[in-house]
Amino acid sequence: MDALVTGTGFVGANVAAKFIDEGKSVIALDQNPVKPDFLQRDDAKLSMVKGNVSELGSLEEIVKKERPKILVHTATYINPREVYNVFEVNVRGTSNALEIARKHDLRLVYLSSGAIYGQMEGNRDIEEDESFGPLYPPREHDNTSGVGYAMSKRLGEQWVGMYRDLYGLEVTALRLAWVYGRGIADYRLNSGVSLFLRKAIVGESMHLPYGGDTFCDFVHVFDVADAVFNAATRPIPKNLAFNITYEKGYLMKEVASSVKSLIPTADIELGPGMWPSKGVPIPRGGISFPSARHTSIARAKRELGYAPSYDLVKGMNEYLTWMKKNWDLCSPQAYPFPA
Ligand SMILES: NC(=O)c1ccc[n+]([C@@H]2O[C@H](COP(=O)([O-])OP(=O)(O)OC[C@H]3O[C@@H](n4cnc5c(N)ncnc54)[C@H](O)[C@@H]3O)[C@@H](O)[C@H]2O)c1
Fold first, then answer.
1. Can you list the positions of beta strands (E) in 25-97?
2. Which of 16, 67, 112, 165 holds its CA 20 to 30 A away from the CA of 133?
3. Is any atom of ligand 1 closer than 6 Å to the C-beta of 113?
């Protein structure tokens, strides 16, 4: 096999599909392997296995058998109430992926997150080399639920950098913004782009007195998969870490009007101001630190040949088509709307 992809959730499944489309063979490892529709192909280039990234032996057994050259590490745990597991998967699992890559000479792509920037102020493009803001304690308007996850991703990425410096490991870290697109079939259906689309499909109104000016950094999953593929197959870049997002961020009121351009009957109205962090009817999903910010992709363009092509309308159009085709997974019956 050419590549081992750990975690076949939302991003991992799309990454596996991209590698296969590019002619690579993939072994996909997950503790709970599930094939989404777009991986349901009769293809000798894909095999899925059950495995646990928190167990070094489980990973090594597969690597010894399949002999991949590339390791894409996407497996993650995010439940904010289960921080022991967050550490076990996101920190120990990453340490195991690194150790395997070192021992077996694999090229590693680590899926990091824009959440590692923490509390940073200002409406500007954030560059990779800026000093990170604090993660804890959260400020009054921060969503505390993402803190453990953000800490684990920050430590994970720094561990990755240490392996690169200590052992000369060929590794790249991609700091993803808030990803959307085909394959979301969990609690994230009730946040951001997913929720707006679902409400519009069933003709349910959404009128909120706030939130329209909340600024979000969205990226479509196909652009992410392209970035991962480039990071795994091009000559190793000079830098370790790269922001991966679209050219620009969007206000939630722009998200609402983009939904209306796709579904003219959509009845979404958001009042001015930021989405408050507490006591609101809609969980904000990936917006752990909703400071008005967008991450700069200048470095990724320069060194990875990253060229995102999905603006919000094009990206939502793809997602909408997939969602309708997979309505059994995405309907309010499958995931009831927040009360
Ligand atoms: N989705 C986003 O908006 C986003 C944003 C920034 C960064 N990221 C990063 O991208 C990566 C992928 O995220 P995602 O959205 O696909 O997450 P996801 O939750 O959809 O998928 C994660 C997968 O990891 C698997 N997993 C969990 N514990 C495991 C274990 N011990 N062993 C093996 N598999 C295990 C889960 O079963 C799941 O299928 C993560 O590293 C995440 O931090 C995602």
1. 26-30, 46-50, 70-73
2. 165
3. yes
